[in-house]
Design the sequence.
């Protein structure tokens, strides 16, 4: 019940395209859903986050869509750029700790 | 640099040795977290502190692991009698209350 399932495992997108990463959860106690970006050898960097009372949040080229009834949320990266090539993790918070998905390796081809 | 700072960045140790890592959180953050990340996986929660109090520990944190946060500032994570299975990236994060959590660059531990 503590798991967050993330898909796809890897994703290749053309420059300028839309990257979409999906996550699903079971635990209704999760109250906060962040997305992190991680480059090789670096720590995860917070990208954008959403609370379950909001269905969508947009910051620049990054948008989170949240479907509370389906217990699913997704990250959309608009106008994807080669510099966006990284590993993306969704996460969910319950009782002061984050539970992470397994990650999606995104490659944006120029 | 006002981010979360971790030291060392890399540590290679022989099996059976003890190692200690340090984390300096963002100065106004009262919460500090330790996570472990193995290759190809997301970070897994180990423990967290609110100020100097260690409030939660994961079952992943065996009795060979100990963490401290004296005076509610920096934190140390010690692993005693290291095993090859301890090889991982150890990540520290901090937040103010339940606000956004910011991660450090991590300490990459290799046990040989």
Sequence:
């Amino acid at each position: 019940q503590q798991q967050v399932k993330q898909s796809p495992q890897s994703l290749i997108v053309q420059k300028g395209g839309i990257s979409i990463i999906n996550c699903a959860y079971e635990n209704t106690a999760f109250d906060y859903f962040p997305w992190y970006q991680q480059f090789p050898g670096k720590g995860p960097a917070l990208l954008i986050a959403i609370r379950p009372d909001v269905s969508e949040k947009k910051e620049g080229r990054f948008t989170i869509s949240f479907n509370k009834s389906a217990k699913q949320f997704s990250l959309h990266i608009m106008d994807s750029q080669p510099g966006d090539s990284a590993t993306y993790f969704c996460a969910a918070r319950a009782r002061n700790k984050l539970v992470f998905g397994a990650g999606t390796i995104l490659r944006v081809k120029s | 640099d006002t981010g979360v700072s971790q030291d060392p960045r890399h540590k290679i140790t022989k099996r059976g040795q003890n190692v200690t890592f340090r984390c300096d959180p963002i100065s106004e953050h009262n919460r500090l977290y330790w996570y472990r990340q193995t290759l190809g996986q997301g970070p897994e929660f180990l423990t967290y502190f609110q100020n100097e109090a260690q409030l939660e520990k994961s079952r992943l944190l065996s009795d060979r692991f100990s963490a401290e946060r004296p005076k509610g500032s920096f934190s140390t994570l010690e692993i005693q009698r290291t095993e090859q299975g301890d090889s991982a990236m150890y990540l520290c994060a901090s937040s103010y209350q339940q606000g956004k959590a910011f991660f450090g660059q991590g300490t990459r531990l290799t046990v040989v």
In short: Chain A touches chain B at residues 6, 32, 34, 36, 41-46, 49, 89, 91, 93, 95-103 (CB under 8 Å).
